[in-house]
Amino acid sequence: MRYSNMREEELKNTVATDFFEKFDCDRIVGSIDFAVKLKRARNALDFQDEYLLWAEAKIKPTDIAAMLAQLVLTIGKARAFDNILPPPFLGCFDCEKIAFVPYADIQDIFYQSDFNWKVAPSDHDTREFRQIYAQIKKIIDEGASGETYLFDFGKDEKELKQFISANFVVGKLQTTKTHIDKNNFIIIYNKWLETVKPTIAVDWDIAKKNGILDGDFYLADLLSRENETLKEKLFVLLKSNHYELDRVVDSAGFFSSKNAQFKDSQKAHAQFWAKYERPPLEEYWDYIIERRDLLVPQDVRERKGSFFTPRIWVELSQKYIADALGKDWQDEYYVWDCAAGTGNLLAGLTNKYNIWASTLDKADVEVMKDRIHNGANLLDAHVFQFDFLNDDFTKLPQGLQDIINDPEKRKKLVIYINPPYAEVSTIGGGKAGVNQSNIHAKYTSQLGTAGREVYSQFLTRIYHEIDGCVIAEFSKLKILQGPAFEQFRSFFKPMLKKMFVVPANTFDNVKGKFPIGFFIWDTNNQEDFAEIIADVYNSEGNFTSTKSFSSYEGLKSINDWIISTRNIISEMNIGFISCKGSDFQNTNFIFILNDKNLLPHPRGSWVTDKNIIEASIYYSVRHCIEATWLNDRDQFLYPNDGWKTDDEFQNDCLAYTLFNNNIQSKYGANHWIPFTENDVNSRDKFASRFMTDFIAGKIEHGKKGIQAGTNGNLFPGVRQKNRKTALRFSAEAQAVFEAGKSLWRYYHAQTKCNVNASLYDIREHFQGRNDKGKMNNKSDDPTYTALIGNLRSALKKLARKIEPKVYEYGFLR
């Protein structure tokens, strides 16, 4: 509760301050708890005060009909309306909610004959109170004829303030409701889910399994006037006091339908829609219907493919199709969107006689047919319900069957789709049904792990059963680069004619920073995919560059390389490097800590005195280049031999790693201190001087036990360090050491410092942790802030120096 544990006067003052600050709430009218009137200037003429609200207040949650009944008895007993112009609203509030009723809906109660107004308003046991209560309850429950505006102080704060701003106006006689448009219809839908949906007599879990979704009930409400849906083609219709859906004509020619009633006699429905103006302006209807996908639950959208393709990419994709197939392609080719949703991908196509659209969801079919009647360039007979991953092609319209069954016509068929992106691992370890389709069962041996994703099943059926067609599709880039799709690529070999990529988060409800590609495949021509140069567009639709995408077929990953550094005889563990994945999307999972046992599911390698250079190279290569949406799926590879003789590169990587790890002294000896005690003015001896000894050339590196042909070297061809010579660092690496030394010295000057502190420990000391135990991003110490800033700046310069070598040595293409 927003206003719990308050006394009544405190509650009234707080509500006045929070919501009625622009008005005068100080004047008390008789025994009325709360009154709101317009503020008057000191020199204003002595006209009668204009009140906007009289209200009853209670400190505990109370029935609004009871509060309003007590208010009415209070007003009636004092005959307040005889001497003061009554306000446009009567109201009531408690610690959690506030309600308003137009005075005009109440005023008849004050003029009823033979009524005893002398009873105590606070006595709820009198006959008079019960009579008023029944009358008020009837007004509240009537909905359309008597409207009550109910707001939760917490959940509805914004709407409440809008209501007050719009309606508490001088001389205003009619209530202003919140207008609904394309910008707020989803926000209002989410509130509808909380308020109205629970009062509809539907088992939503069973309904959902049968393709009946709450969003269609909301659409029926939204596009209605006086509780009658205005769009007859919608799947669900509001019919005064109930919903009607699934209207069909049976074999005898009779119409039948299902009905859904309200469990509360439509009270919550009436109170909710009293706040909003419906229907929206007609100019928004097509947009709202077209965006029905936004009213579909996320899990259903992923499974059925109800993801709206942004108009900017629809237009761009059709331009690329025209470039690939010729400017007259719409007259020369047929088009089938077999995952059409509400059909927005087909907007802009001109030849409706050559277009087919199918979708799994019957409600989406109804939406598309409604759009046809409002100008969408489709044929009613070409829009149909079809489960592409389970239904047989004999269920298709005959005209489309004729095309699919004719090898020559198939060459002139474009399968134009933005298929579902659901995968088995999306939510909680498994998306039910993703790998249970007929198509998955039929092609399991070919799909392999790629079968865990729905769009790969779409492409597999198209490739095998509509061979010769053109596929124009939006999808993730795993199809080209993903290691899990290697088996898929072994059979899926159409020629990739054209491609562009865009940021994934430009698509609704797609999270993460990765690319979505638009691909044009020619299944009539076969080739192994190796590489393509794709056009790159930013989120505004502007061309920015080109980028090469490769399959990485037959290439080893950087993780194969780091694995080869394991298990050197007589090695000493100094840390553990987490090595999850081999692409940029896993950058945040690459880190160094004390021990593998600190991780619940460790995947990586021990860092030892024998492989510290290789581990530092691995870490630096994975981190020196910023992860972006564009490189998100780029793979890090097994390097060539160039790095082996580049001492400066190796030492740069060591310096970069020394000032980037997550080593913490509380988990064991800190072997990663890059300075001597004298360097940082330490007040005591360090527990380990491993790192400064290593830098000074006092510790052997790279010695392998028994490895034939390597002459004792870990990597053949690697020049062994001269153990009497210290490592030599580049100017950029030296700048990092100097910045780090200043930070360490400042830390060791603190009263409560840990002699063996790591960089992580130092950051924790100055930045502290929040209530959830997470390290804060900033520190209140300006000196520390400046020093850590200098270190980070130096590390960025060092990273830029390392970056070209990442490509030169083949870690990245």
Features:
alpha/beta, 813 residues, five-stranded mixed beta sheet
Strand-helix topology:
Elements: H1 8-19, E1 34-37, E2 51-57, H2 64-78, H3 80-83, E3 89-93, E4 97-102, H4 103-106, H5 127-141, E5 149-152, H6 157-167, E6 178-179, H7 185-195, H8 204-209, H9 214-222, E7 224-225, E8 228-229, E9 236-239, E10 242-249, E11 255-261, H10 267-273, E12 276-277, H11 285-290, H12 298-304, H13 311-325, H14 329-332, E13 334-337, E14 355-359, H15 362-372, E15 383-385, H16 398-404, H17 407-410, E16 413-417, H18 438-442, H19 444-447, H20 454-465, E17 470-476, H21 478-481, H22 486-489, E18 494-503, E19 515-526, E20 531-537, E21 543-550, H23 558-563, E22 573-578, E23 592-593, E24 604-608, H24 612-623, H25 647-658, H26 677-680, H27 690-695, H28 731-748, H29 759-767, H30 782-808
Parallel strand pairs: 2-3, 6-12, 13-14, 13-16, 14-15, 16-17, 18-20
Antiparallel strand pairs: 1-2, 3-4, 4-5, 7-8, 9-10, 10-11, 17-19, 18-19, 20-21, 22-23, 22-24
Helix pairs in contact: 2-5, 24-25, 25-28, 25-30, 28-30
